[in-house]
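lol ok so funny story. i was supposed to be doing the assay writeup but got distracted and ended up predicting the structure for this chain instead. priorities right. anyway since i did it might as well share w the group, maybe its usefull for someone
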Amino acid sequence: MRYPLDPHSHARPTEIAVRHLDLDVTVDFDARRLTGRATFTLDRTTPGSGTLVLDSWDLEIRAVTDADGTALASALGDHDPVLGRALTIEVGAVDTVVVDYSTGDDARALQWLEPAQTTGERFLFTQSQPILARSWIPCQDTPSVRHAYHATVRVPPELLAVMSAENPTERSEDGVYSFAMPQPVPSYLIALAVGELEFRALGDRTGIYAEPAVIDAAAWEFADTERMMQAAERLYGPYRWGRYDLLVLPPSFPYGGMENPRLTFVTPTVLAGDRSLVTLIAHELAHSWSGNLVTNATWNDLWLNEGFTVYFETRIDEELYGPDFAAMLLRLGRQDLEIELPSLDDRDSWLETDLADPDDGAVSVPYEKGSLFLRLLEQAVGRARFDAFLADYFDRFAFRSIDTAGFLAHLRTELLAPAGVSDDDLAMEAWIHGPGIPPNAPEFPSDAFDRVDRQASALLAGTPAADLDVVGWVPQQWVHFLRALPFDVPHPRLAELDRTFGLTRLGNIEVVAAWLEIAIDSGYVWSAPEVDDALAGFLGRYGRALFLRRLFARLAATPQGLERAREIYAGVRPGYHPVSRAAIDRILVAD
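and the output, tada:
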């Protein structure tokens, strides 16, 4: 196994790598602490190596021994503000290491929810990506190291525990649960959630976990999950993880979804009541191939994960809902990229990055620019040839990690050279190590969006909102419509839109967010108290970092908005997951 140097980990897997993890964890809701024992089975990748290095963040290390209980010499290094502390263990010739530990107050992967944040009384969930697993498990916290794991988790008996593993569907009387993940996974895909959960089957291989108050709505919303799996397998080969289940988390979950193997974590913000946002499930399912099966070797190679997944997601959507729908998604994705690029340094818009902190990679570039590059490859060689290449790629590199240089070498050998396509034909360097969107990026015509553009022009020309032809519009068209409005649109026109279509009160998070964005950018929010109230309510109700970043950044663009943003944030920050807090701190908190 080749282990590239990972700048975001203390681990030295080129010497000793973890081959298997046995985890025993007790969940203490009163103390808000996990107490655990991690038993590592080792693989000496360099013969004779006697030092194991693990990553840790704010962990209390209680003991380090071999399998017989004999103490091993160990030391915690100095704290690094990005990497945490290295746990260095002199293992000598032993092949098993046991670490007893507990989590600290700054366990950034964990969120312990207050009763007001959940429909039950207690809830805990983890978010390990990108390098937060080290805050709840001492581990080699790099995506280049993969291992299987077993876990025993002890929770209050009235709660159900689930992991990114083979899961129970009923509560245990004693609150003790055993889990197995037989396929090797990187540390960022180890996940745990504990709460008052119920399970509902969706298909032979699919199901959903949620709190009782949510389970019916969630089961209805995600009814297409089994069809999505079938479409994905038709495209790029068999699903290799056994089951594909979903867990709907409370609203503070910081992402739309997290592709934990066998158990995708999902935000409740996609429960729109009309199945209009279930493309998010297609995205997380696609990760079962791109990201989970074949993994980016470092976080500087994130585009190999997310760009492939956006491409794969839209192919699933095209299979199920048609090319016109997929074209709308691709157009919106490109809009996201174009909106964000002006705020980025040129270097930050390369596909292969050089991140000081992997959290800085949580931008649209690896997703949307990566997907555009794959669409360019498809155009250059033809869809049939490209599909065959991708299916072979997922099979050939299954359960392995790959970096950008390794992928490009494989791409040239297996796809481009046989097709007679050169780097220069693609402007390859401009894509991988160049800023912005290269001129040869694919375009995505959309009749549905052309109709929207005509209605936006009519509104700006004076047509009353009530006379606009919006019959049959889907949420993606409404988002495009709101983005098509200029920042100087007259406030009376925005008020008329809101009165006519109830934009402030809609239940679709993507449309409401687009409406709040134009209200902020135009300054309308300051003359419409009900919109300001809705903005504050939105920022307090949801913890999804994507929308929080967009809204807080827009507010922070003016002195009046910055003052209002800080006022709102002071009240809502304690309810955010550490991931979301860190993202908004970077926008609003002065150094």
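The chain has three domains: 1-193, 294-432, 447-588. The chain has a mean pLDDT of 96.
back to the writeup now i swear
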